[in-house]
Amino acid sequence: MAGLVSGCATAPHGDTSAATGDSTSGKEPSTVPAAASKALRQAAANGDTDQTSYEAPAARTNYVPHKWPAPSQDLWSKIRSGFKLAPNDERRSVRVWTQFYATHTNHLSLSLQRAKPFLWHVVHQVEKRNMPTEIALLPIVESGYNPSAKSYMGASGLWQFMPGTADHMSLPRDWWYDGRDDPIASTDAALNYLQTLHQRYDGNWLLALAAYNAGPGRVDNAIAKARANDQPTDYWDLDLPDETTQYVPQLLALRRIMMTPARFGVNWPKLANAPRTRVVKLPGQTSMKVAAHMLGISETRLRKLNPGMRRWASEPGGHDELLVPAAKASAFRSKLARIDPSHLIDRRTHIVRRGDSLSRLAHSYGVSVASLRQANNLHGNRIRIGQSLTVPRPGSHESAPPSEPTQTYVVQSGDTLWHIAHRYSVSVASLKSANGSSVNTLRPGQKIEIPGSAKPPAPSTVVVHAGDSLWSIAKNNDVTVKQLRRWNRMDKGTPLQPGSTIAVDGPAPLPSFYEVEPGDSLWSIANRFSMQVNTLRSLNDMSSGATLQPGERLRLQPEVSG
């Protein structure tokens, strides 16, 4: 599953002073999401400022407080006990993002699930540096805690490093290994970078976070502009890109929910305060297949823990560490100490004969010429008779990380393959391929697999300004008004509200919940979100005669298992 919300979308390529990342694949739009625009419109209509006393509709006054375990026992409790940032709960942007997270619970749950193998290491490094433990929540904002997250602008990993910033922070990137995707190495680099920014802005964490997102150059320019105009230079008053003005509120919204999750209808999970993974040093170049066999786990699982490893083996003479399940680390170290290093490589050797060429050998062994060159450190096509060549396993030249596991979906009454595919933005063909003939006829209660991350890249969005119309927005983005209405679930005659966000090249994300408004009916809600009425009833355990009440929360997406 891809991530929750975006990082930065403002950094130019190769600018080492610019942001670490941008909108990652599967992440929500970086501007205020459509799901939260109702709150913004209401506040704007009332003339509220960022200090508005508006309370997110998801907040509940009658709730049983969440019982947190002792910090020594629970990792999330440990994070919560180390909060140091000012909460800024009164700010409208923080409250709007609180509402967003509280209604997009599937996204939040999957982020917390993905954090499990890496969170202990992140918290350990944050505490070692005496940083606010809110920083351990930042990868939720950046990547949804997905170490394989990629962005269209080139940012990568948990912390969404751009190539230039990765080079600036000495994160290695080559054919074998990408340190940006290494959860341990990238965490160390990200926290070092944040510490440097913290010092740059005289101990102001909000400015440091803004600079992490937009780049220190932009923050410096915004401060200089404010000083020139005799204006305040704190984060909340600076003229920063929209992505950056929403960046810190996203983190503070997570902090706010974590302080009282039951208040917002969020069931925050427990996680033992113990490492789930350990770093093991390798004695030499090691095949991922061999290491997985020694560990007694699948190669796919090992690769998911080590997305920085781009090839079939670790780099010869390069990065020599693997992240492995904690329970298996000790036995793995013992096996590595006893094994002949030559047995750690799953490869073939070819002795060059007369008539051989790289292209012929590549065709014969089912690999690419590029992989042969890289495996043997060749810079051209020349090989000599008698030369020993390493032949990588077929497919080992592919650099794409393994896909995330499928999600299980429980078929609801009235579902069709088309509706399920449309809801999760996958094709009907991919659903059939993932489930075989079992999905030719669907029945309520049937479990099917949603292939891949089941979340598409977030659509591009524009913020509506006074005087805008659907026609003008459609013209400026080379789409039709009909497409805009369909993607944003807008009826004819629905007025545009300045400050709201419009998706301009794909469907706006479907929220987990919808708050019933006066005049709503099950039919109008189902039609708005491209659902069947029976599905909406089934999702909310409603009888055929049930009535709707304004303010009631309806579930729009079934709970899914990661």
From TrEMBL:
GO terms for molecular function: lytic endotransglycosylase activity. Transmembrane segments: none annotated. It holds the Pfam family SLT. Residues 17-28 have a biased composition (Polar residues). Belongs to the transglycosylase Slt family. Residues 34-45 have a biased composition (Low complexity). Residues 1-54 are annotated as: Disordered. It comes from the Bacteria. This is Membrane-bound lytic murein transglycosylase D.
